[in-house]
Design goal:
With 617 residues, the protein is of the alpha+beta class. It is built from 18 helices and 24 strands. Helix 9 packs antiparallel against helix 18, helix 12 crosses helix 14 and helix 14 packs across helix 15. The longest helix is centred in the first third of the chain and has 32 residues.
Length: 617
């Protein structure tokens, strides 16, 4: 039975109403988009064009390269390069007829293993096939969240990335959920040789861009200058959200980091490393540290401690980051008798003592008093009657305590400590440099401060503070602030790093003290440095170490030397920390290492032997 005229009209009216309603909805939506929320949707459209935040800088051409760190001769100590991560999106919709994700992962695994990369296959499949992850919310409920990006491999080299990419492109329909992202890596060609100075970089989960940042050493202090900046690039996306760079534009161009040139010399650093390694193996001590500086400029040529670490140890959590500090800058120790020339020079400079003054220390022990309280000071061996030159030469604690307590007094000793700027940091560009440890004027015990500080106890300094101030006896009283960074820049556009110079004592007293320090080598406690091809000026020091509870925990044993003494080119300091055993004096502990470092360094620098000393070797 057919449809009559009335039924046709009824159907036509229904269709017309539906069409009218549909068109009305479309028009309403267009008006809503174009007028009511035009601004909002324009912003959404812009966001659809911009590379996702987690991918900014992921393309190689968008990355700012981290600057290099070079030694004084241009040897590369740290350099950056790009590697790649293999990413999979396990939650990407699969096209009809395409292989399963497990099959694609199996093909990818075979491809990876074919280029010699060892992979934990179980973990590879677990990570690649995990489409959801459970997350506990604050209210205790467990929420299952979809996983969109999983890192299957890291550290792929460019040729490995190219090979895998070619395989995946052959199976484009099956492997569109696999991608590669560039990541910055840092290489240290000299291994652990300069680790405590250079430091290392690492990633932090708190960094939204997951970029490597300096975590120790120069890498940490100059991170902002070294790191550069990633660029941001507008790019278009297809219907599946895949990005491509057609018709793209820069929002912000990438910027490479600055290079950093150090005063450090790999050759001299190697000398220091080899010599203190022998010391560490021979003696029962917690650590050994060596410093080599240019006396006349303050430039640091070597800064080395042992035991040391390698960056690989830190990355594998075999070394805690607190053990990666540079001991020469970050740790403090009592200087012992190396401190005596400073107190004596200060007293000389103010006319409170003269070289001809006589000190009777034949009793071997002396008592000093202040406000009814007393203390005793001993010498390690009997010395008889000494003039001031003899006091420094044989290193008498009793005589130095007399100078400090009776000639300078508490205020004078404190003025000497501050006058030599031992209350200030050196300002060298390495992290964690502490302030020197000694009591304030208000809190100090005047009796113990005036006596003990005069022979290097009751005060704790960093090795670099001692070495840099000791150099004033080779510069005519001028203090050159120690410098580790020579320049910062790119290519030939370099900005020099300059440090200040200032006078701490008179040239007359400094030169006279240097002459006495030569006598310490020729006839005193630093005899291991005698008979080198160059005359040397030096002072030894041994100090007792105590913990916070006053318990004895060993000794600090060190030598600081200037060579050649006539016109010092280098200042060398070697110290053993928390030393135990029967051999504690610097003559036998640090002496041989200082001698070897001086001889090898001056030979490397091409300094000719002094006339008349070649036959003395």
């Amino acid at each position: 039975m057919g449809i009559n005229h009335q039924q046709r009209q009824k159907i036509s009216r229904i269709v017309a109403i539906l069409l009218f309603g549909g068109y009305t909805l479309v028009v309403s939506r267009l008006l809503h988009v174009q007028v009511t929320k035009a601004e909002t949707f324009a912003g959404l459209q812009d966001s659809m064009l911009v590379r996702q935040r987690h991918k900014i800088g992921s393309s190689q051409f968008e990355r700012g390269t981290r600057g290099r760190i070079l030694d004084a001769d241009g040897v590369q100590l740290a350099l950056g390069f790009d590697t790649y991560r293999l990413i999979v999106d396990p939650a990407m919709p699969r096209r009809a007829g395409s292989a399963t994700l497990k099959d694609r992962l199996r093909v990818a695994l075979r491809a990876v293993e074919s280029i010699g990369i060892e992979v934990d296959s179980v973990r590879f499949f677990e990570r690649g096939g995990q489409t959801h992850v459970d997350q506990v919310r604050p209210n205790g409920f467990i929420e299952s969240r979809r996983v969109r990006r999983r890192v299957l491999l890291s550290g792929l080299l460019p040729y490995q990335r190219d090979y895998l990419q070619e395989i995946f492109q052959r199976r484009n329909q099956r492997f569109r959920d696999f991608s590669f992202e560039a990541e910055s890596e840092r290489e240290y060609p000299q291994g652990s040789l300069c680790a405590e100075v250079i430091g290392f970089v690492g990633r932090s989960g708190a960094d939204i861009e997951n970029r490597p940042r300096g975590r120790a050493g120069i890498e940490f202090v100059l991170d902002e200058l070294l790191s550069g900046e990633h660029g941001e690039f507008d790019c278009e996306k297809d219907g599946l959200g895949r990005e491509f760079d057609q018709n793209g534009r820069w929002i912000k161009a990438p910027k490479d980091g600055y290079d950093v040139g150090l005063s450090l010399s790999v050759g001299i650093q190697t000398i220091a490393d080899e010599e203190i390694r022998k010391v560490y193996q021979e003696f029962d001590c917690q650590a050994v540290t060596a410093i080599v500086m240019e006396t006349q400029t303050g430039r640091i040529l070597a800064l080395r401690s042992y035991p040391t670490f390698a960056v690989e140890d830190v990355r594998a959590n075999r070394v805690h980051i607190r053990d990666t500090v540079c001991r020469a800058v970050a740790n403090t120790y009592p200087p012992g008798s190396v401190f005596k020339p400073f107190i004596a020079a200060w007293a000389l400079d103010r006319g409170l003592v003269s070289w001809d003054d006589v000190f009777d220390v034949s009793a071997g022990i002396a008592r000093f008093e202040w406000q009814g309280k007393g203390r005793r000071v001993r010498d390690s061996h009997p010395n008889g009657v000494l003039d001031l030159r003899g006091v420094i030469r044989v290193s008498s604690n009793m005589a130095m305590a007399q100078i400090g307590h009776e000639r300078l007094g508490f205020g004078g000793v404190y003025d000497a400590v501050e006058g030599f700027e031992f209350g200030r940091r050196t300002g060298v560009l390495l992290p964690h440099e502490p302030r020197p440890l000694f009591a304030s004027r208000a809190a100090a015990n005047p009796l113990y401060f005036s006596t003990s500080v005069s022979f290097g106890q009751e005060i704790s300094l960093t090795p670099l503070q001692i070495a840099s101030k000791f150099a004033v006896f080779g510069t005519g009283g001028i203090y050159c602030e120690p410098s580790l960074v020579d320049w910062i820049g790119k290519g030939s556009d370099r900005r020099a790093n300059t440090r200040s110079r200032r006078r701490l004592i008179s040239a007359k007293v400094a030169d006279e003290m240097k002459t006495v320090l030569i006598d310490v080598v020729e006839n005193g406690t630093a005899k291991p440095l005698k008979d080198l091809p160059w005359q040397v000026a030096a002072k030894t020091g041994t100090a007792e170490l105590f913990d916070k509870n006053g318990n004895m925990m060993g000794y600090s044993s060190s030598i600081c030397a200037l060579a050649p003494a006539a016109d010092p080119m280098i200042t060398v300091w070697v110290g053993l920390h928390e030393l135990n055993g029967t051999r504690i004096y610097a003559t036998s502990t640090a002496g041989p290492a200082v001698r070897a470092i001086i001889e090898r360094t001056l030979t490397k620098l091409g300094v000719p032997a002094e006339v008349g000393r070649e036959e003395e070797e």
